[in-house]
Amino acid sequence: MSRQKKFFILLFLCIYAPLNVPVMAAQVRVKDIASFDSVRYNHLIGYGLVVGLAGTGDRLTNTPFTEVSITSMLQRLGIALPDDNLRTRNVAAVMVTANLPAYARNGSAIDVSVSAMGDATDLRGGVLLVTPLMAADGEVYAVAQGPLSVSGFAASGQAGSVTSGVPTSASVSNGAIVERELGFDLDDFSRLRMHLRNPDFTTALRIEEAINKNFGALLAKVDDLTTVNITVPTEFQGQVARFLAEIGSMVIEPDQVARVVIDENSGAIVIGANVRISEVAVTLGSITIEVQETPQVSQPAPFAEQGETVVVPRTDIAVDTSEQQRLQLLPEAPTLQELINGLNALGVGPRGIISVLQAIKSAGALHAELVVE
């Protein structure tokens, strides 16, 4: 083969070969998009007191529950106080929350979050006293205590103040000790249920196919768009954790609903990869009214016998109807990049794009679910 033919063959492969390569969609592990029914955390909550604050705690006259809590705590410690004798501002009543992990054992430590209930202004330097944490069944599962970690701060003077973050919320790393275990064993399960975090029939069916293909048996069956029922095979009886680990490590290609999410408060717009639009013509016009007040002073002529100085109002009103804007053709967008390019061609900001997307949806040209929050 001549060198010229070799050159043209190589040129052909460089130009056309990449066009035949399939685009790989995003693939994720099953554990990242689903959870198992029996493997989850439980919410815990408790009421406690934070002490050691530098005059930034609750005002007892405004928060009677704080005063009652302090009195009850001191009485349990054998200290009796006469009435109307509490004047401290170094104590704050707080709510303590935590998440009890699945299969947490006695003695293990978990993180807790602390939030002020009363009119405390800053929890920095505070220490959380012993606080029982209960679940929805009313049982105590953990006990929290320890120094607070506060990321925000507040400072004030006579003529101003500054606040960064939220100084009335704090956390205690490993601040709670688990005192009660949940009473069930994973190896006792012969059937499991998997829940998708983003419900979708296609994704659920792909998980079912991946599990059945991997183990060579009909172990998984889709119940609905959220749930996949799984039977534990005989070889994994007594080793359910190993079985779940193998399922969680499987890689599939999840499907997603075409969706556009709009946050009206911040103006944020999130457009999914499967969003498509049909060809439409769009224009975005607005009327801007500008009012300027320029009052003038009118005085009588020099040496005039009569007259007085008055203020004469003068108002200038300018109206801009944005007539220079023209109808813009927004072509059919089969890809997300083309959709973004078409919206950017309108030359409007996020607020304008929100109005355009809502109008396109009303016209039936936006083939996606529009969610406004």
TrEMBL record:
<feature type="signal peptide">
    <location>
        <begin position="1"/>
        <end position="25"/>
    </location>
</feature>
<comment type="function">
    <text>Assembles around the rod to form the L-ring and probably protects the motor/basal body from shearing forces during rotation.</text>
</comment>
<keyword id="KW-0574">Periplasm</keyword>
<keyword id="KW-0969">Cilium</keyword>
<dbReference type="InterPro" id="IPR001782">
    <property type="entry name" value="Flag_FlgI"/>
</dbReference>
<keyword id="KW-0975">Bacterial flagellum</keyword>
<comment type="similarity">
    <text>Belongs to the FlgI family.</text>
</comment>
<comment type="subunit">
    <text>The basal body constitutes a major portion of the flagellar organelle and consists of four rings (L,P,S, and M) mounted on a central rod.</text>
</comment>
<keyword id="KW-0732">Signal</keyword>
<dbReference type="Pfam" id="PF02119">
    <property type="entry name" value="FlgI"/>
</dbReference>
<keyword id="KW-0282">Flagellum</keyword>
<keyword id="KW-0966">Cell projection</keyword>
<protein>
    <recommendedName>
        <fullName>Flagellar P-ring protein</fullName>
    </recommendedName>
</protein>
